[in-house]
Automatic annotation (TrEMBL), chains A, B:
<comment type="similarity">
    <text>Belongs to the gamma-glutamyl phosphate reductase family.</text>
</comment>
<dbReference type="InterPro" id="IPR016161">
    <property type="entry name" value="Ald_DH/histidinol_DH"/>
</dbReference>
<dbReference type="GO" id="GO:0050661">
    <property type="term" value="F:NADP binding"/>
</dbReference>
<dbReference type="GO" id="GO:0004350">
    <property type="term" value="F:glutamate-5-semialdehyde dehydrogenase activity"/>
</dbReference>
<dbReference type="InterPro" id="IPR016162">
    <property type="entry name" value="Ald_DH_N"/>
</dbReference>
<keyword id="KW-0521">NADP</keyword>
<comment type="pathway">
    <text>Amino-acid biosynthesis; L-proline biosynthesis; L-glutamate 5-semialdehyde from L-glutamate: step 2/2.</text>
</comment>
<feature type="domain" description="Aldehyde dehydrogenase">
    <location>
        <begin position="7"/>
        <end position="262"/>
    </location>
</feature>
<dbReference type="Pfam" id="PF00171">
    <property type="entry name" value="Aldedh"/>
</dbReference>
<dbReference type="InterPro" id="IPR020593">
    <property type="entry name" value="G-glutamylP_reductase_CS"/>
</dbReference>
<protein>
    <recommendedName>
        <fullName>Gamma-glutamyl phosphate reductase</fullName>
        <ecNumber>1.2.1.41</ecNumber>
    </recommendedName>
</protein>
<dbReference type="InterPro" id="IPR012134">
    <property type="entry name" value="Glu-5-SA_DH"/>
</dbReference>
<keyword id="KW-0028">Amino-acid biosynthesis</keyword>
<keyword id="KW-0641">Proline biosynthesis</keyword>
<dbReference type="InterPro" id="IPR000965">
    <property type="entry name" value="GPR_dom"/>
</dbReference>
<dbReference type="GO" id="GO:0005737">
    <property type="term" value="C:cytoplasm"/>
</dbReference>
<comment type="function">
    <text>Catalyzes the NADPH-dependent reduction of L-glutamate 5-phosphate into L-glutamate 5-semialdehyde and phosphate. The product spontaneously undergoes cyclization to form 1-pyrroline-5-carboxylate.</text>
</comment>
């Protein structure tokens, strides 16, 4: 099959999208919200067709499932995006040059944003709203097992766009087959950025195959370092929260580093984890300290592969380190540069850690669970970037924009 | 050959580079400048070995050649970079969240910057100075026919770094063979960004092969639209300058679009081009207007492939358009989104053009020759990005940085 016509439609629509007024955009978003509430039956029926093809025991089943309450939440999210200030047109820099040229750097849309994701129909609404708000057209490649849901959602989006006199090419759902993904990855000249959302396998595949610019999101191999100066009670709360609040998310804690002089505190520090049923993979000193104190069924000796693993489960690795530099070295070696934390009372240790650790978010004395667009006050989130180019950490509206240089003259030539 | 040890050295050096003080960095840059002046003989001898392997008639010969005057200029450039304010540590955003967390977004180095370039030894100095200034380690893959020059320059850089007690891994010259390029393109986990500088062929190759994030630079297919309202004398000056100031650069004019009501002015508008010896490829109405007025030897009918060509020569395409929207359509179809200009007195035409055209730099009533880091006041330039992710147009120091989120708490957990 030939996919270029989809890409051409998106490119053409993106030209028009760049000059839409905020009022036009917000009217669309509010009408989509209203429709998401009104067309509940239509959307749930399509969703039921997808659900019927999946085992209820599949971990993806819950993410695939739409309910009236979830549609209500999605409608609220759409209205929230409508209420945000558009970053477009923001003047990032403005100056007059000695030769009389007026120079300004102005925020503009990226153009065409491609998103590859798994069976999560809520993402279809999210990506559309964030892209439209930022003047971008979007090309969606959703999971094939959510295709009925996505088709229904996109048909609803198209109806609203057409009623508002806008180009349906602003949102395109690509066919569910794998070849469409391949074509999207190679759509040089059509796609300004591609954002894969999903498993590490998907992200690795995209990195291997993409010929268009990509923003990597995803994997978080997250550490928290319990310094010699750390407060024990704070450590108990923060480590419990970072590990167990939601184990399936990328900011969840994977590896606790403990200063060797505080290994003695491990039984108390880890007690809340035991209550929560967390399996521990401990290095020799930590294992010795926990043995007899931590439930035997949940305590295992660590092997090398437990360090640098993103567990996404009630599991944690514990490693003893001689000092802060050793903690920094371990993090540098194993971190995926997502979220890293220190627990310490010593200001010098805190500053050294915050300055030295190379990660999207670095924390002192707080749970890494806060790495999230809404928590950071971005208003919305299209993903969490784990690369350093363009956007780092939670990506909101600004991260879906580029800029251009506008130069106004009265006949200037360069000597 | 195995190249991973080069990448590991650069990665290790980048950790140290991120926490260097501005004084340490500037001391290195000033000493390198002093050495570039003092070791003239050493550098010119190495350069002579490269020159001896190239025909003097080769267009690359002049770019390869170092002279005492050029080394003097390079030394001044190094001192200029030393005098600029470092963007590192700049606080891009700072707020206190309702839960008491203090959140700041702070500029940090990218990490390891790879640059692939052709036989231009001056780039070796430039990339080193801009990367060191921004706390990055750099991996250099220069043209093989400049390898003696590059080796000499990098040995000089290493001596200075060692004298200043810094890690020689801050700058690494990769071996001249093609396999090193291939390894660099695939150095996932080591290279944070790769910037290819050179021919379209090189850039296409990088886009096809790279598994690490890339910033594309280069090709400029540049238009200037002469509106129905444009001033003729201004047009003569600006078009001449944009086309002929330096034909080999990416911001040079490639295609003049003329409003059909102003085709009558073409003989006067193009007269300065004739004097400069510019070959014209004109569409039928423009050809008819120029016939008998423009030197016959320099006037040819345009064929389709002349539109969308980057000439890099004393050649220009001329196309007649019915109106501004037709000009915008032509630009949208053929532009490489580098630099685009309108010549007009009508304010509405100007605003429509500046808002609608999707390019790194959009001009009203000025020569596109100004698209340049120094002209835009960036202080320095590592390349001109033609993509929309991360950096667009001239890239200076800020564009060689990323940011991280620093979160300070007193035990906050997320509910």
């Amino acid at each position: 099959m030939e996919y270029t016509h989809f890409f051409k439609k998106a490119l053409a629509a993106s030209r028009a999208a760049a000059v839409l007024s905020p009022d036009q955009v917000n009217a669309v978003l509010r009408e989509v919200a209203a429709q998401a509430r009104e067309k509940t039956d239509f959307l749930l029926e399509a969703n039921a067709q997808d659900l019927a093809r999946m085992e209820a025991a599949d971990p993806a089943y819950d993410r695939l499932k739409l309910t009236p309450a979830r549609l209500q939440d999605l409608a609220q999210d759409l209205e929230k995006v409508a209420s945000l200030t558009s970053p477009l047109g923001q003047v990032l820099l403005q100056k007059s040059l000695p030769n009389g040229l007026s120079l300004s750097k102005v925020r503009v849309p990226l153009g065409v944003v491609g998103v590859i994701y798994e069976a999560r129909p809520n993402v279809t609404f999210d990506v559309f709203s964030l892209c439209l708000k930022t003047g971008n057209a979007c090309l969606l490649k959703g999971g094939s097992n959510a295709h009925f849901s996505n088709q229904a959602i996109v048909s609803l989006l198209h109806q609203v766009l057409e009623r508002q006199g806008l180009d349906a090419g602003l949102v395109t759902l690509l066919p569910p087959e794998r070849e469409a993904t391949q074509a999207l990855l190679q759509a040089v000249g059509y796609v300004d950025v591609l954002i894969p959302r999903g498993s590490q396998g998907l992200i690795d595949y995209v990195r291997q195959q993409a010929k268009v610019p990509v923003i990597e999101t995803g994997a978080g191999i997250v550490h928290t370092y319990f310094d010699v100066s750390a407060d024990l009670e704070m450590g108990r709360q923060v480590i419990l929260n970072a590990k167990t609040r939601r184990v399936s998310v990328c900011n969840a804690l994977d590896c606790l580093l403990v200063h060797e002089h505080r290994v003695i505190d491990l039984p108390l520090l880890a007690a809340p984890l035991a209550e929560a049923g967390v399996e521990v993979f401990a290095d020799a000193p930590a294992f010795a300290a926990l043995q007899g104190e931590y439930p035997a069924a949940l305590l295992h000796p660590a092997t090398e592969e437990h360090f640098g693993t993103e567990f996404l489960a009630l599991k944690i690795a514990i490693k003893t380190v001689a000092d802060l530099p050793a903690a920094l070295d371990h993090i540098s070696l194993h971190s995926s540069k997502h979220s890293e934390a220190i627990l310490a009372e010593d200001p010098l240790a805190i500053e050294t850690f915050l300055n030295s650790v190379d990660a999207a978010a670095v924390y002192a004395n707080a749970s890494t669970a806060f790495t999230d667009g809404a928590q950071f006050g971005l208003g919305a989130e299209i993903g969490i970037s784990t690369q350093k180019l363009h956007a780092r950490g939670p990506m909101g509206l600004e991260e879906l924009t580029s800029y251009k240089w506008i130069v106004r003259g009265n006949g200037q030539t360069r000597s």
